[in-house]
Amino acid sequence: MSENDFRNKTVCVTGAGRGIGNSLALRLAQLGAKVIAISKTDKHLKELAAQNNNIIPVCVDLSDWKATK
Question: How many structural domains compose the chain?
């Protein structure tokens, strides 16, 4: 396995709605990882998930303890 082989791996990316988190989630999915993409903005998550079937969008505010349950 090479260091860029993410097949059969699951990763969680917070802030995946925009910016670095978005780019990271997409790149990891392209490398074969199942990506749990977390963001507060549902619109951006849907757009991201439409780009790769390995991306599982989760819209939640992680700063809200009750929302994470």
Answer: 1
